[in-house]
Amino acid sequence: MGSNQQQQRVVNVVAVFFFLVLIPVTQSLPFIVLHGIGDQCKNGGVTNFVKLLSDWSGSQGYCLGIGNGMWTSWTKPLLKQTAIACEKVKKMSELNQGYNIVGLSQGNVIGRGIIEFCDGGPPVKNFISLGGPHAGTASIPLCGSEKVCTLIDSVIKFGVYSSIVQNSLAPTGYVKMPIDIAGYLKGCKFLPKLNNEIINKRNSTYSKRFASLENLVLYYV
Ligand SMILES: *[C@@H]1O[C@H](CO)[C@@H](O)[C@H](O)[C@H]1NC(C)=O
């Protein structure tokens, strides 16, 4: 979502969706927003986005932060980020009758992680995914800050599917190199589990939970 125009288009799509699809079936259900990599809930962009959706839909919206947002989103493995998010939604009594998830970029795979892995969590009714890397990416997202770039350079030489890299750079959890699918299935710690791709470790609970959504919107950017 580089340009304002693009952002505006995305916001319009979500707004139309809220008006036409969500409101009639799920009036007053609250929603959470999961932000993208390098972002944080207190940033203006996310804050305004949550507020716009709340104003337009009349539903209560919350930005769900994990750790300190910016650094955590880059460095904490996604299984751990998902576990933290799961504990948070369980503690939010506002969500216990059901809620919707709106994901931005990396936040989408965490959203899907909540839907699939969060045992005992409140029910997710609708999921709107904006630019989610659900099928993986073939590279690390562009560096946002110098500190992060140094880290990326120093760890990537160990190989993207090595434990050290998987444990220290969150986006490697959804790097799917087309030239090394075997390495991906063996070493990548997040997406293969999320997508039930490892043949002898498939878990039908994950697919059942995902299929229980009332509406799924996938917006491609
Ligand atoms: C599948 O996932 C569910 C939910 O997390 C878990 O309770 C169950 O033990 C898992 N089954 C297997 C075979 O791993």
From TrEMBL:
The keyword tRNA processing is annotated on this UniProt entry: no
Gene3D superfamilies: alpha/beta hydrolase
Keywords for the protein's UniProt record, in alphabetical order: Hydrolase, Signal
Keyword Signal attached: yes
Signal peptide region: 1-28
A single GO molecular function term of this UniProt record: hydrolase activity
Pfam family, one: Palm_thioest
Stated name of the protein: Palmitoyl-protein hydrolase
Native source species: Medicago truncatula (Barrel medic)
